[in-house]
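note to self — DONT lose this again. spent like an hour looking for the file last time. sequence + predicted structure for the chain T wanted, 906 res
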Amino acid sequence: MLSRNQFSGYLFIAFLFLFVPLTTWAQQDATVNGTVIDQASGEVLPGVNIRLVGTSTGTVTNRDGYYELNVPTGDLQLQFSYIGYESRTETISGLTAGEEQTLDIELASSLLSGGEIVVTGSRTGGRSNLESAVPVDVITVEDLNIQAPQVDVSQLLTYVAPSFQSNRQSAADEAEHIAPASLRGMGPDQVLVLINGKRRHPSSIINLIGGKRGTVGTDLSVIPTASIDRIEILRDGAAAQYGSDAIAGVINIILKQDTGTLTASATAGVYQEGDGETAKADLNYGFNVGDDGYVNITGSFVNRESTNRTGNHDLHVFTPGFAYGSEEARAEDNEEIQERGLTRDDFKFHIGDAGIQTASTFFNAAVPVGDQGAELYAFGGLSNKQGTGYPFRRLPVESNNVEAIYPNGFQPLTESSIDDQSLALGIRGQLGDWNVDFSNSYGRNAFDFRLENSVNASMLAASPTSFDVGGFAFSQNVTNLTFSRLFDQALSGINVALGSEFRVDSYQINAGEEASYRNYGIGQVIVDGEIVQRDTLGRPGGSQGYPGFRPSDEVSADRTNIAAFADVEVNLTPQLLVAAAGRFERYSDFGNTLNGKLAARYLFGDVLTLRGAINTGFRAPSLHQVYYNKVSSDFNDNNELVEVGTFSNDSRPAELLGIPELEEETSTNYSLGFTLRPIKNVKVTADLYQINVEDRIILTSEFDVADLPSDISAEFRDLGVQAANFFTNAIDTRTRGVDVVATYNQPFSNGNQLNLSLGANINDVQVQGAVQTSPELQNQADLYLQPWDRLELEDGDPQSKITATAQYDIGRLSAMVRGVRFGEVSLNTGGAFGEPQTYSAKFVTDVSLTYEIFDEVDLTAGANNIFDIYPDEHLYANSYFNVFKYPPSQQGFNGAYYFTKLTFRY
């Protein structure tokens, strides 16, 4: 494992190497430049994608329609593509070293509207997303980064991609500091995230409270939006191509390669309620290294203050116990409050978004090597996130408060520090007739946790109020070698790709300080003539709000896996494509898995494309799920404070209760769809899908130790716990749905342009068959998947989502209006004390106006949720005595948000 200093040193060496003047290589290059215009009107076309066929090298036209690209000598092909226009490929022959050739291009409007070139889901080096055998969305980020109200990738995708959903959690421990994200209603760990086609490491955090309980996701918020060229979302199972986690699909983030332009932006925003103030600053610059190399660097800082959307509380703050609700007790409370010179507002919870500050820098670079078209590439980033979350308030007379320290009770604060580091280095080029890509990618995420404004009640007045509770770390190193070749003389073209991959995962849990976890009231007492250990104070130990990890909880675990894969795409005719992929993986902890994929696509002229696929997939249990263990205080179903142990599957408690070791989740994915171009500049796609997952991993509810056989119960009591839960392969699920996307793009002869888009997702998740239980826990089988956990799994994400966007560019003015209909969700946030509740669908409207003050300066003003729409309020039973007013679902619960943004380019 690399230390932070080692990582920084390697990153510096990589930068230093890339910055060395490469005059020897540069002498072998040529330059192609020119202007791209609309064939009908003669107007220049800014933002046209130009790509060197068979490589990742490319550029885009500037505002004047001009481009310049450094290319290798000899013969080559350039591909020009632009939304609303027919793609065009031009061949250039006999380029010599140092030659500069001008190539002006005219693009014609086409029925193939929206045929963006994609690289995700295929190893052909690029294919129109209309010609792909599986659905791939292409989201260009540059305009969104200027016009959209959302400031991070997760929120941006929630409002743009109908099948993507991410919700910020409240009073949810670690999950407050990273918003879990899902695709097609699946878990955050069932979607694979790539950067530039390379696997991105997940977070070190496991979500234990709130949405997507028991899952591990990837923190997209640390990737600056200003560093991203586009995002490709493959909406189909792809484990046979990319390996574990790609059950629901793949999100591939393509970083910028631009050079010669400095882009800076500053954003400020605030919610209508006057809180959640946001300030964001981005800086992006790219420069050439030699004639053909480039380095693109982005720096970003985001400060997001917390929000508070709590309800009107019915808590009896000076009445012992949990007998809330009576008018008599409330009157006694009010009298006590007045005598102390306070108001009921002094005892309100803070419930809302956590405060987050994120500083990050990312780079993307490549330089040519030799005279054979090879290039050395590197990309990666460093970030630090500081967060402040708000656990439940502790009331004055409860046993977890020390009145000598907090006479009026207290609300703890969780303070996080999250470091994220990544670096990928590789070389790609040709070896004979084969394209070769060899790379190594390293990533690490470390989460350190502190409690402020807290107390260890068992220490009484001697307790500190600040605690180091420990933390987590996860690292991943992936070495990849891929060979690919196009046999263009066979049939209508056959592309073959072969490769292997070796991955090492590491996971750590670090203990906190003693006061964060110890119960100092535990002592020896004599019972029936015997000396036993008992709680002599009746007060919980450890830091309130989040007990620390004990030394016995510490983990340092590793896993390796090696994979071999192959895929073949056969163009039987120019219209008919058939693709097959297979991947074998061997994991050091659970063994082998073999997965395959078949896909086909048929083109009916320029109007209709039919496509379909079937594949098997898998998700290896995360090391977090295998090794996470912790003992903490929680309330049981009788509202009694008990010690609850979450035990790993290789532990003695798991053995006692017959909990088996975790195995991989397996899946079968079916998809069938079409793309339709009925009239000029219109594209419609629709795709049906079904995802069957077997042996899906869940985190069980808490098993009562007292209900176990006496000998087993005694061992648990010796461990100091009264309840226990585990991760286990317990359920099968089926997800069915349909995705529909329609776009219309109309450029006008006067330079104005209208872009319309409509996207929809309808999704249904169902648990199939009986829950798989341990024989030793048959009498508590209903605790494997409690009704409220099942409801969140099946209906916790919107059952449907529809997005509609209109953008009209008129000279220097650009107007954007977007409406998103978040479908209904069903939840029971009150658990054993709550009841199922269906929250109705909500329609949220975003607007923005962007004005080009000068050629280099844009000013944007706008709003998210301009009509201040909130989710339905909780039923009383689900509100924890009116503490929680809204659910953390659908569009969030903060209301209207207004922003301004200034963007500068030079």
